[in-house]
Design a protein that fits this description.
- The protein is an alpha/beta fold and about 180 residues long.
- Helices cover about 30% and strands about 30% of the residues.
């Protein structure tokens, strides 16, 4: 199994101190973050697209999570988690409405005052959008990368405010908290 995302490793102590121990890994992929947090004492729910969930059902690591859910189960689940993880999911979801649907589902499963940890591929200084681009969702160069300001704009309507962020060479991570 691959190593957990840098943001998850980096912020896991912060979330423990905040007693944010019930986690939804929303877009779990190969469960690398879910397994890491489970091993750290967190109670983890993992969710992904139905076809990925079917693949994961045969994975021995599934025993290390509280529950594995398909994304179509999440809207009605009301898990009331302390923390939702989103690691590179927004670099995959390109449609504006799908992104907002994803966020609405995350918020529906998050307790008031809970946290959302977003890690995304960030735009490099040498990556510039074409001069004809008027919206960062309209061209491949822009829509596959995000800055913390762009995330703030997307998350604010969902009642999430940024409390921390940091950049690495290829990624940006931000913690948001529910109002």
């Amino acid at each position: 199994m691959t190593r957990a995302a840098e943001s998850v490793r980096r912020y896991s102590r912060f979330f423990k101190k905040q007693n944010a121990l019930k986690v939804l890994d929303y877009g779990t992929g190969n469960m690398r973050n879910a397994v890491f947090l489970s091993d750290q004492g967190f109670r983890v729910f993992a969710a992904d697209l139905p076809e990925q969930v079917e693949k994961l059902r045969a994975c021995p690591a599934i025993r290390r999570v509280e529950r594995l859910l398909a994304t179509d189960e999440l809207p009605g689940s009301r898990l009331d988690v302390d923390l939702v993880l989103s690691s590179y999911v927004f670099n995959i979801i390109m449609d504006h409405d799908e992104r907002h649907s994803y966020l609405a589902t995350a918020v529906a499963n998050l307790r008031p005052g809970g946290y959302l940890l977003m890690e995304v591929r960030c735009r490099q200084p040498h990556e510039r959008c074409d001069t004809t681009c008027t919206d960062y969702f309209s061209c491949a160069e822009c829509s596959k990368t995000l800055t913390h300001e762009e995330l703030d704009t997307l998350l604010a309507p969902h009642g999430l405010r940024r409390i921390s962020h940091y950049y690495r060479s290829h990624a940006m991570s931000a913690i948001y908290q529910m109002d």
